[in-house]
Design a protein that fits this description.
alpha+beta; 11 helices; two-stranded antiparallel ribbon; 316 residues; four-stranded mixed beta sheet; single chain; Butyryl-CoA Dehydrogenase, subunit A, domain 3
Amino acid sequence: MSVYSMTGFASAVASAPDHVSENTDEGDSSTASRAGGGKSASGGVGAELRSVNSRFLDLSFKLADEFRALEPALRDLLTASFKRGKIELRLQPQRAADAGWPTPQPDQLHTLARLEGTVQNWLPKATPLSVNEILNWCRSAAPSVKLEDAALESARQCIEALKEAREREGARLVGILKDKLKGLLALAEQATPLVPLAVQRQQERFVQKYQEALQAVGGSVTPEAAQERALNEAAAYALRIDVDEELQRLKAHLDEIGRLLKKGGEVGKRLDFLIQELHREANTLGSKAAALELTQISVEMKVLIEQMREQVQNIE
């Protein structure tokens, strides 16, 4: 199963079916003529989807007034396809040029001329009709075309395109995260042999300090007792600075992240939790580190983990 990003953009246009006139019998041949032989270009509907990261699924709609009634159906389509992300859907009608300005027919012009003559007989000062007014009247007299089906179809096509875009972006994120995982595993391998060396150096330092203290106080403490005391305190300190457990947990979290990336699906929230755990282990490693090398490794780990966190926040 693929890993999906929450960021993406898609657009689609669905054409409305040509309108077929219902009155095409011989008694109303003028209507069929106005419809252009029984059909008229009706344009279509353009859809746009924009998606960014979000903790939950947050939907917003920017629809033309004629599509307001479709919002519940559009919401169902989106919730069935996406689980997380802030998604904005835009729907706008796209009228065809010839549908916007139909060719006036003789019977229409005859009707307008008759009506204009009647008005001017009663109102001689009335302004004659302009070309723009005539064309607008012809357009309003044309049968209206329903675009609801085209709107839903354009939304479906746009949803599929957005899913593909989010899948492609998710694949790129997986590649980035796998590179970071390799870097963290390499750092953990570097830190593993440094732990016993740091403990050994600390034990030697304690023994040396106690020997110096023994020489300073004279013979009031036997060398055997001083050495035993030094070794006991060195052992207690070694337990406090031992980071082997943290390294093992860190490796386990890295293995789990790799497994989730391979499994795919809705893994964003689990990955986010594991990134927090990686931060915890890296911080503990830095605070307990008794060697400069371990401190440097801890800093480099935090840098990689922060880079992973930025990418994980975009995964669904």
